[in-house]
């Protein structure tokens, strides 16, 4: 995490209110377009309102659309989401097609996701599915029927190989190779 | 932040675009001005947050229409409006009307909330009994009480966007009002769309809150071994606990493992730092297996259609014990 991200709010990937388990609820609840009727900066937004807004409202009856004309101020969209958050976006000097894409972005997100630093790319309520470890967790089933004490299970196999053992293995390997070359 | 940005000198704004430099040149008068504004705000009793429905861009009718569409339900408009009218709002309006000698009757949502609660209470009970066929009735009631608790209902209500639409005397609305409004919405839906649609609504928004939760947490068992023994002996079988593993005895990290056997066949195993705890854990595990709510159970079915019927024969009775 760099210094730039210190004041980013952080979060996990979560669906609000188990969205989609039952039925899908569009998370954008209302959107306010503020624009000027005459200034050039609002041109793109005015075009959008003239050409696409009615269709947007028809396709998304669950989103309340407000238009707020105001003189000589730059155009702005304010999107409000079901989790109570509010996303402000400046549309000054943006073209019609840019605005179209940004509004699609506002409609499909659940919050200002770009303003959240994801702590992880996945999330689970249950980090372990096998439960806590115990000394019996990965026990060899063979042990259940073994007669103890047992040479196999009693052997100490945790020590590293001794130098003598290593030499003996090298010698045996060499002998095999000698036999091969002789053949 | 926007305020600060606005008063950055234009030249520095151009240079600072990459923002690798820690110093942002902000005019010297900005900080004292902000401080003064803050002081005046505090003097007037803190920041005033006006509720959303006092904004210029607010249309209650449109909001109510969108609310119904959001949930993909067809509400009766008058009923939905009534569902959003809180008692406190009606009282406030009546006081106002008395002053100006005016009288319009307003209905509050208490009656609808009562209807909605009654419906949810019955339906959730039936639904849980259908999807958890072996789980004891006490556990089903425990889950139901959790789902119908104020906290859970208020959370659902909030995330469906009722917060701003509720007509109340004070804002922001508290959890009680949020939960009450949600109950009233269920009641309103029941009256306008009938039983089945309401049932599916409750299933999709309330019962799904169980997703990712352990249902066993809602069933409190005092002595699991005693209960298990009673249940098994009723079925006419023998049950015995066996110590099947121990490690690190007489140390701080002692670990015992107890298995529970029915007719010499292992039912479950549990571990703990003493034999008694291990036995208790093993019996809890065994009970989960009997109730069909073990760790690796299938997820609860959230797609049952209509209103399920009860089938009490299969269920374990623990009330008698």
TrEMBL record, chain A:
Gene3D superfamilies: Glutaredoxin (3.40.30.10). Belongs to the mitochondrion-specific ribosomal protein mL43 family. GO terms for cellular component: mitochondrial large ribosomal subunit. The keyword Ribosomal protein applies. It comes from the Eukaryota. Residues 37-110 form the Ribosomal protein/NADH dehydrogenase domain. InterPro entries: Ribosomal_mL43 (IPR039927), Ribosomal_mL43/mS25/NADH_DH (IPR007741), Thioredoxin-like_sf (IPR036249). This is Large ribosomal subunit protein mL43. GO terms for biological process: mitochondrial translation. It is found in: Mitochondrion. Keywords: Mitochondrion, Ribonucleoprotein, Ribosomal protein. One of its GO terms (molecular function) is structural constituent of ribosome.
From TrEMBL, chain B:
SMART domains: RIBOc. One of its GO terms (molecular function) is ribonuclease III activity. It is found in: Mitochondrion. SUPFAM superfamilies: dsRNA-binding domain-like, RNase III domain-like. It comes from Leptidea sinapis. This is Large ribosomal subunit protein mL44. One of its GO terms (cellular component) is ribosome. InterPro entries: dsRBD_dom, Ribosomal_mL44_DSRM_metazoa, RM44_endonuclase, RNase_III_dom, RNase_III_sf. The keyword Mitochondrion applies. Keywords: Mitochondrion, Ribonucleoprotein, Ribosomal protein, RNA-binding, Transit peptide. Residues 223-292 form the DRBM domain. GO terms for biological process: regulation of gene expression; RNA processing. Belongs to the ribonuclease III family. Mitochondrion-specific ribosomal protein mL44 subfamily. It comes from the Eukaryota. Residues 60-194 form the RNase III domain.
């Amino acid at each position: 995490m760099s210094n730039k991200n210190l004041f980013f709010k952080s979060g996990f990937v979560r669906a609000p209110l188990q969205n989609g388990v039952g039925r899908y609820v569009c998370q954008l609840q209302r959107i306010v377009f503020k624009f000027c009727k005459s200034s050039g900066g609002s041109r793109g937004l005015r075009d959008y309102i003239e050409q696409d807004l009615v269709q947007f409202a028809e396709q998304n009856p669950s989103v309340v659309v407000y238009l707020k004309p105001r003189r000589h101020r730059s155009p702005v969209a304010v999107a409000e989401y079901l989790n109570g958050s509010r996303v402000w976006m400046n549309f000054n000097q943006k073209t019609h097609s840019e605005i179209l894409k940004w509004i699609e972005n506002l409609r499909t997100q659940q919050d200002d996701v770009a303003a959240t630093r994801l702590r992880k790319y996945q999330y689970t309520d249950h980090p372990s599915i096998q439960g806590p470890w115990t000394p019996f967790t990965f026990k060899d089933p063979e042990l259940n029927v073994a007669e103890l004490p047992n040479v196999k299970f009693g052997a100490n196999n945790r020590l590293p190989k001794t130098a003598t053992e290593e030499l003996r293995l090298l010698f045996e390997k060499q002998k095999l190779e000698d036999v091969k070359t002789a053949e | 932040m926007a305020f600060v940005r606005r008063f950055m000198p234009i030249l520095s704004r151009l240079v600072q675009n990459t923002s690798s430099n820690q110093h942002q040149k902000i005019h010297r008068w900005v900080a004292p001005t902000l401080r003064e504004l803050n002081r005046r705000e505090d003097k007037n009793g803190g920041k005033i947050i006006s509720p959303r429905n006092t904004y210029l861009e607010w249309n209650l009718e449109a909001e109510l229409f969108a609310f119904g569409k959001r949930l993909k339900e067809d509400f009766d408009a008058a009923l939905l409006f009534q569902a959003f009218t809180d008692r406190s709002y009606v009282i406030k309006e009546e006081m106002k009307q008395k002053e100006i000698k005016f009288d319009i009757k307003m209905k509050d949502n208490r009656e609808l909330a009562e209807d909605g609660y009654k419906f949810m209470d019955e339906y959730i009970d039936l639904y849980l009994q259908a999807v958890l066929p072996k789980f004891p009735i006490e556990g089903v009631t425990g889950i139901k009480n959790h789902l119908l608790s104020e906290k859970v209902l208020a959370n659902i209500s909030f995330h469906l966007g009722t917060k701003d639409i509720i007509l109340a005397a004070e804002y922001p609305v508290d959890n009680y009002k949020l939960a009450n409004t949600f109950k009233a919405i269920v009641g309103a839906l029941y009256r306008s769309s009938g039983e089945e649609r309401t049932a599916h609504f409750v299933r999709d928004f309330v019962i799904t809150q169980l997703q990712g939760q352990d249902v066993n947490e809602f069933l409190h068992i005092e002595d699991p071994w005693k209960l298990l023994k009673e249940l098994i002996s009723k079925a006419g079988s023998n049950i015995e606990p066996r110590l099947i593993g121990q490690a690190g005895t007489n140390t701080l990290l002692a670990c015992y493992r107890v298995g529970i056997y029915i007719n010499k066949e292992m039912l479950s195993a549990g571990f703990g730092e003493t034999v008694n705890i291990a036995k208790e854990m093993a019996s809890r595990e065994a009970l989960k297996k009997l109730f069909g709510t073990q760790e690796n159970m299938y997820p609860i079915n959230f797609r049952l259609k209509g209103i399920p019927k009860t089938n009490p024969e299969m269920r374990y009775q623990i009330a008698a014990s």
